[in-house]
Amino acid sequence: MSLKAVLFDFNGVIINDEPLHKELIEEILLEENLRPDAKEHNEVCLGRSDRACLETILSRRGRVVSDEFLDKLLAKKGQRYRQRLETQQQLPVYEGITDFIHELWRSGLILALVTGARREDVEYILDRIKIREAFVTIVTSDDVRTSKPNPEGYLTAVDHLNQLYPNLNLTPQECLVIEDTPSGIEAAKNASIQVVGVANTYPLHMLQRQADWAVDYLQELELERVKQQFANVKIN
Description:
Largest sheet: 6 strands, parallel
Strand content: 5-15%
Radius of gyration: 18 Å
Oligomer: single chain
Number of strands: 6
Helix content: 40-55%
CATH class of the largest domain: Alpha Beta
Shape: globular
């Protein structure tokens, strides 16, 4: 068996924007007369979509919210997110990430992106850092009904790649996921995909217990060693 595709998470792997997301969620909660809780945010928001995050927090506080109301809150957050980024001359992408992505791309691997972020935000950032063309397909919160740790996003990406490359016959077992949170790692595992945990958001020792590989920085990942491990796996 060979490694054919690498599926990237976005927030916390490509762009270091978790502090901004936390700030914006807190703003929305305060406007709803609710007190933000940092521990709760880390528990229910990291690695999950904004919709899942807000819906969980609001329901915990006794709020019954409709999809329409959530849509308004998410639109407000999205507008503020874009406004904050547009004021930054340089986006907070992780050091070396664009070179790492280009290296994988040049090696012939197929690249995809699976995220709980909005498509509009993802496309804007990828265009600004000039790596949009590296990703064959992008699965966002606009494309799926569930949030990580549900595997829907990753399975949807595999399906999209098979539609784009009918002769590829891609299986989840021939993919590698790159994630930074336990919920993202669980989503990959639930999709039967091996996963690299990068310690951008959680400590390395925590990711080592959950992921197939764990690194402090993606540049430390020994790609040839990973490929060899895939090659050693026999398909029954």
